[in-house]
Amino acid sequence: MADSPPTSRIARTRRFGGLVAGQGLRWAGTRAANALRSDEAADVATGERAAATARELVKQLGQMRGAAMKIGQVLSTVEFTAIPESEREEFKTTLASLRDDVPPLPFKAIERLLKEELDMPVSEAFADFEPEAFAAASIGQVHRATTKDGKAVAVKVQYPGIAEATETDLRNMQMLFPLIRRLAPGLDVDALAGELRERISEELDYEVEAQHHRAMERGWRGHPFVFIPPVNTTLSRRRVLVTEYMAGRRFDVVKALPDEDRDRFGEIVFRFFFGTLNHLRRAAGDPHPGNYLYLEDGRVGFLDFGLMRVVDADYLASERVLAQAITRNDAPAVKAQLASLGYLPRPDDFDADALLGQLRMLAEWYLEPGHRRLSSAYVAQMIEEGSSPRSPYFAQMRRQTVPPQALLIRRMESLVLATLGDVRAAADWHALGAEYWEDAPPSTPLGEQDAAFWAR
């Protein structure tokens, strides 16, 4: 078990400030020494300093729960072009895994919070409550319980004091900007910060998450292969979220299943996230495989809708137009859409054909027609090609940015791809995707069931 996370405003501010000040001095030392080095040696030294900064950033963010860890998770989707290529992927993977290694707090540490939120002792609210948490993340942990009417439920409880700690982290986030700018020179950190503040502030309020969860459950209710457990509104509170308990095969078990089962699972994951975006205009920012369960009846159950954005209809329509332009190799239209969506800070600095080439390379897995079995090695290759200084598009990628409305969309796409590669799923991903951005007819039996559901 872990000790309570540090919640003192002074202690958390000191952690951020110490990181920035220490790394700032080291960067100054590197710049001074570079004045006496050859250009090649200076580039190597700068890369080494960037890598050291990245490792320290991961270490510090990983030691704190709350927004600090959430910031690290979201940063895992950013291309840190200043970090040497040999270390960049490891850095991003470590950031993305911050949520996986959080030890739960002892039950005594959260029992008082439960009593305060429920206005009664736990024993009065539930017929049975397992004190050992079966899952833990950056903001809260989950326990299994049984309600007074005999229903099995999952009880998500926010860590005591984490809301105050997170508010402090969000205020202190601007101290990280100088480091992040050095690691990702092309990133619009102000836009990133605004999106993080809004999304993480919502995630702290489980009543907001419950609203997202209920909207998702209503949207997918009765679907033939997707299941979202209903929220127990009677027992849910601002810091407590209670949902129906799901029993199913976890991701590690799914990865060992035969090809047919893994392919079905992968197609459902793809259809769930792209369908949620297309039909409900919701970008789910945390498509982590720990939030999926392969149910015995063949459906896949999905959890955790705290990090979510409702995308403007006009913006989503423009993203669809962009995908269509890429598919038909219309370079001028691609550039025009990227500019209007906010990806190109200075549109005149970009060549239309180069932009089309870059996007076709990055989205090859679902833009190139044909049956393709994904793998972790393929995903790693795609990421390397998309961030390597050897890429012909590297210079232009450094001058681009990710607009706030697209941040969770791009995070969703990258984590869904990583999941499909990890589970080694196969499909004609282009045909599946075309159903969502071009309204193409269903390409699989699951697609026919899905289309019939949404046509209701």
Automatic annotation (TrEMBL):
Pfam families: ABC1. InterPro entries: ABC1_dom, ADCK3_dom, Atypical_kinase_ADCK, Kinase-like_dom_sf. Residues 98-335 form the ABC1 atypical kinase-like domain. Keywords: ATP-binding, Kinase, Nucleotide-binding, Transferase, Ubiquinone. One of its GO terms (molecular function) is ATP binding. The keyword Protein biosynthesis does not apply. Belongs to the protein kinase superfamily. ADCK protein kinase family. This is Putative unusual protein kinase regulating ubiquinone biosynthesis (AarF/ABC1/UbiB family). It comes from Solirubrobacter pauli.
